Amino acid sequence: MRNLDGDKEIKLLVEWVLTQHTIKENNNKICVLMGEYSKDENDRRRSTKDALKRGKEICDERNKIYEEQQELKHKLWRAEQELFNR
Length: 86
Known about the structure:
The model has no long low-confidence stretch (mean pLDDT about 85). The protein has helices at about 10-40, 40-45, 50-85. The protein is about 85% helix and about 0% strand. It is mainly α and about 90 residues long. The two termini are about 20 Å apart. The protein has one domain. It contains three helices and no strands.
């Protein structure tokens, strides 16, 4: 029987699954944020300062999530390289 506690391949697979899950969660957050952004679009078109400020906040939050997505995708790529290119 294999020692699962010290098995690098098992750890990489777990990391890969968790990273995939986080990417999916972030994509859902981005969809919600963009829906909120679209909902407030009419207010922004009327040049309402508050709506513009909120639109900027939403875009800033979305950009942070995009950056995290890129880091996660790179982490996922590294794990795939280690798992599948032995």
